[in-house]
Amino acid sequence: MIQVDCPFCGKRNLTEFAYGGEAHIARPKDMAAISDAEFARYLFTRKNPKGAHQERWNHAMGCRRWFNAVRHTVTDQFWATYKVGETAPLPPDDWDGVLSKSEFEATTETEAK
Ligand SMILES: [Zn+2]
């Protein structure tokens, strides 16, 4: 069972949450000044990585608040969740998406000793 750590409520089952697409998509400051191609790129073009992805999530069956998460697109493992406006806690480049952030950090601390 996959659990998501809502920044407001704590860990809950994935079934309580709704995916909201890629995070950190900035709306152009002057919509009238951009070309149709730039508007189409803003509206439709999204990353599709095989690995860590920054996403928007909504706790639809809980507090109903939006937050961001870093999730591995192959394993569905969540690295971290964070409130909108906070800096994304990005995983290291060698994160394979198997371990969560706390498990990964515990492993690297053990290896360092
Ligand atoms: Zn919540």
Automatic annotation (TrEMBL):
InterPro entries: SoxD (IPR006279), SoxD_sf (IPR038561). NCBIfam families: soxD. Pfam families: SoxD. Coiled coil: none annotated. It comes from the Bacteria. It comes from Aliisedimentitalea scapharcae. Keywords: Plasmid. This is Sarcosine oxidase subunit delta. Residues 94-113 are annotated as: Disordered.
